[in-house]
Design goal:
Elements (H helix, E strand, L loop, with lengths): L2 E10 L2 H6 L4 H6 L15 E5 L8 E5 L9 H7 L2 E8 L16 E3 L2 E8 L8 H4 L4 H5 L6 H14 L4 H15 L4 E7 L4 E5 L5 E5 L2 E5 L10 E2 L4 E5 L4 E5 L8
Antiparallel strand pairs: 1-4, 1-10, 2-3, 2-4, 5-6, 6-7, 7-8, 8-12, 9-10, 9-11, 12-13
Helix pairs in contact: 6-7
The structure holds glutamine.
């Protein structure tokens, strides 16, 4: 299962999260603490999306190789600074391609999106849900993967003007209904607000005075990291973090 991180706050160099923290995404790529479904490493690619400032849309860098083999992040990741980012390392689900376009974050205008998990029974389990999308949305999916479909479903709702928290909640519950025992930890930001779901996978949050960090695994051993319960929708800004149950009737763990 992939690992992802979202950051909102005072500007930092992305390398702090990707490479320099004691349990950075780099460490989580070769020695993750909480893998599930039999996966052991996140070596099938990585990605970083960040907001360059002054209201500009996010910039993205992805590679379909292990983060530890990359020769660029260590230099440019320390040279830039950003107040908002999403980064991920990928462990491809069996049968899904190892290509750059399958790596999170997915991007659309101001939005950055990542998925940590798997849709069980792919692709048949969600064929009916996918069929509700316009053909153009399906034809422009970046990769034939569960994560890209989740992004297509969510993006459609965001384009229609639905509130991000409602769109996240509906997509998770529709997919979980069609494909029980899926793992659906989603992460979405527009650079100002961050939205994350926990659905059968780990997530922790650190809210400090100058920033909020949401991460599949804590980036260090600070006691302020809080584990987010399963089945939650987290909504965060720099100043506030809230969580709500996604569904009171949910039975699967
Ligand atoms: N199932 C997705 C993929 O293969 C997400 C990756 C993960 O969380 N393992 O791309």
């Amino acid at each position: 299962m992939c690992r992802h991180v979202g950051y909102l706050g005072e500007p930092i160099a992305p390398a702090e999260v990707l490479l320099d923290a004691p349990h950075s995404l780099l460490v989580q790529s070769y020695a993750p603490a909480d893998m599930r479904c039999g996966a052991t490493m996140n070596a099938d690619g990585f990605g970083l999306g960040w907001y360059p400032g002054d209201g500009a849309e996010p910039v993205r860098y992805r590679q379909p190789c292990p983060l530890w083999t990359d020769t660029n992040v260590a230099s440019f990741g320390r040279a830039i600074s950003t107040g908002a980012l999403v980064a991920a390392v990928r462990s491809a689900t069996v049968g899904m391609p190892v290509v750059e376009t399958a790596c999170a974050p997915f991007v659309d205008g101001r939005w950055l999106f990542s998925h940590n998990g798997v849709i069980t029974g792919w692709p048949h389990s969600v064929a009916e849900i996918a069929a509700e999308l316009p053909a153009v949305d399906l034809l422009t999916m970046e990769a034939p993967t569960d994560s890209a479909l989740l992004w297509a479903l969510l993006r459609r709702r965001l384009h229609a003007g639905e509130a991000p928290e409602a769109a996240m909640s509906v997509v998770v519950q529709a997919v979980a209904g069609a494909a029980p025992e899926s793992r659906l930890n989603l992460l979405l930001t527009d650079g100002t607000m961050m939205y994350a779901t926990t659905w059968a996978h780990s997530l922790s949050v650190l809210h400090r005075e100058d920033a909020v960090v949401v991460s599949s695994e804590p980036l260090d051993d600070r006691p302020e990291w809080q584990r987010v319960d399963d089945g939650q929708l987290l909504i965060a800004s720099k100043d506030e973090v809230r969580t709500h149950p996604l569904s009171p009737t949910r039975g699967f763990r």
